[in-house]
Amino acid sequence: MNVTIKDVARAAGVSVATVSRVLNNSAAVSVSAAEQVNSAIRELGYSPNFLGRNLRRCETNIILAIIPSTEQTFYSEIIRGMQNAASDHGYDILLSTSNSTYDLEMRLLNMIFNRTADAAILLGTQLDAKTLMELNDKYYIALCCERVEGADVLTVSVDDEGGAYAAVEYLIRCGHKKIGMISTSVASTSSLDREKGYKRAVLDNGIPLREEYIYKGTYDFSHGAKGFEYFRGLTDPPDAFFCVSDILAAGVVKKAFADGFEVGKDISVCGFDNISLSSMYTPELTTIEQPCYEIGRTVVDELISNINNEEKTNKKIKLPYKLIERETVKKIL
Amino acid sequence: MNVTIKDVARAAGVSVATVSRVLNNSAAVSVSAAEQVNSAIRELGYSPNFLGRNLRRCETNIILAIIPSTEQTFYSEIIRGMQNAASDHGYDILLSTSNSTYDLEMRLLNMIFNRTADAAILLGTQLDAKTLMELNDKYYIALCCERVEGADVLTVSVDDEGGAYAAVEYLIRCGHKKIGMISTSVASTSSLDREKGYKRAVLDNGIPLREEYIYKGTYDFSHGAKGFEYFRGLTDPPDAFFCVSDILAAGVVKKAFADGFEVGKDISVCGFDNISLSSMYTPELTTIEQPCYEIGRTVVDELISNINNEEKTNKKIKLPYKLIERETVKKIL
DNA sequence: GTGAAAGCGCTAACAC
DNA sequence: GTGTTAGCGCTTTCAC
Prior knowledge:
- Two copies of one chain form a homodimer.
- In chain A, 46% of the residues lie in helices and 16% in strands.
- Chain A is α/β, with parallel strands linked by helices.
- Chain A folds into three domains: 5-48, 434 Repressor (Amino-terminal Domain), CATH 1.10.260.40; 53-158 and 292-319, Rossmann fold; 160-290, Rossmann fold, CATH 3.40.50.2300.
- In chain A, strands 2-1-3-4-5-11 form a six-stranded parallel β-sheet, with helices on both faces. A four-stranded parallel β-sheet of chain A has the order 7-6-8-9, sandwiched between helices. A two-stranded antiparallel sheet of chain A has the order 10-12.
- In chain A, α5 (75-88) links the parallel β1 (62-67) and β2 (92-97).
- At the A-B interface, α4, α5, β2, α6 and α11 of A face α4, α5, β2, α6 and α11 of B.
- The first copy, chain A, binds a DNA duplex through α2 and α4.
């Protein structure tokens, strides 16, 4: 059943070295020999065993991307970007999901320890800076979407702080002064950076910063509604809401509607990510778009350049966001 | 840098065979030797090179799952099911996306040809029955969610026809007699099976079958609106709509609302899948739920049993659906 | 309970 | 332009 390079060599009447040469185009081979080999390959239905090749070469040309879950639909474009970039360099991207779990993430990282993968990209990690730095010393890793404070590791993400700043400033420009933010209390640098942007935009525009205007929940849809309820309970509730994700924004839109508010007329909501849901919703979500495809391409390009250059750069790259004006923000002025 | 089993053996003062034995628990080793080895492993930070192991064993314990894209959020639970089942048998699931592209799918399948993966699961394939059967002869493959007509290959999916039948019968029970169906014209057996279910339910209930009541588009959200528009253009339009997916159902709900219809009061809509979007929508989507987690577990369990038994069963398994009553269906009676 | 050694399939010196 | 061969890191007989 398992036809090997030896079988091909025998059938073609040449040595295994010659077969290997035509397989890899690694050296000149006479046309006649090449023909011989190729027809033998075809006849025998030969396919090179990469376990042998990879062992010999000490490389797999596989990059592992570890994502928390495939539930987050906005990973989809990132992955497409990764794949295209990888393909350009002869690499393949393989995905696996960690369920945001330390144990599973470690088990998957094992693939780089045991040489089953050449590198790993972490889209949201449970590991701390110290561990990450140690890994980065011995292996090729990159962070994507979520940076880790203090980790000097190649990181590619959107400009979270700038995006949040733009969102809030847009809300202010539309006439809003009481702006609530729905963020998360989970350890997430993207949320933290977006909070920074929110605060800076508020302050820069001469609006007093109120701590009670920042609600922190989880990334779950239900926390959109919970956040909205929380704000409605305040004596002086906000009339505009900046959410750290579109899922959360959708949550407040749904809850607000259920409570009799017309979003985009009575109150305003702005999300972040621009996932496909955002334009499927009624009303359609105004949001900050991440350049997902570009993010994916960039991590992989940089990671492979690290692999090839043997001089890790550990760049921290922030790609530009884009404000997408749709229907959930009311222009008061 | 690369510490191997030899280094461990040397450091522990034993042979590589002994190290291998403690690594795999494959044979009795004296406690003292085992301790020696384990501490050497710890000291040297040794991690076995799986390329060597896999080459030797002719197996990788990796199952490749090829999905069209991660955009379809309902794969998420399927994957979780796959992972858990795989983990129970000492396997890992790796994902890759084919973008519904023949070339990319083939490139990924290459991983089973070149022994980088032990088996592959196809969630919606571009390959035809003949190719699939040939692959199934030489390798371990399985189909998930989408069967292929005439392919005698292990297949696990929801009971598509039964689910559609249940949806349409529910609509009828709620008092509807004019039921339109929004399906797809792409080659998809799940759509075809759901059409069968629709037709059977209509006929079984003494309602005449009208060909113009079946609209065929793509899986794209926009085709929900297009389908709705098409139906509104009919001289005698339906007042209930069964959609082949929740995305499509969401499309008709949004369009209907924009056109001034109150879904769940003026007209009814029922989807399929029960993706997370369905309960985030306003109104929330009535739909047919797929047992995603179970589907994932089942394919992997059966696939691994095929691998172990050396006697492929090629079962065709249809798992039960569940009607989820929410807000988009009006009860006329 | 342990070690020596063959060999998994492949690539890449090296010699011719 | 081609063949011989060592060896990648590992597991597993086989002998002791």
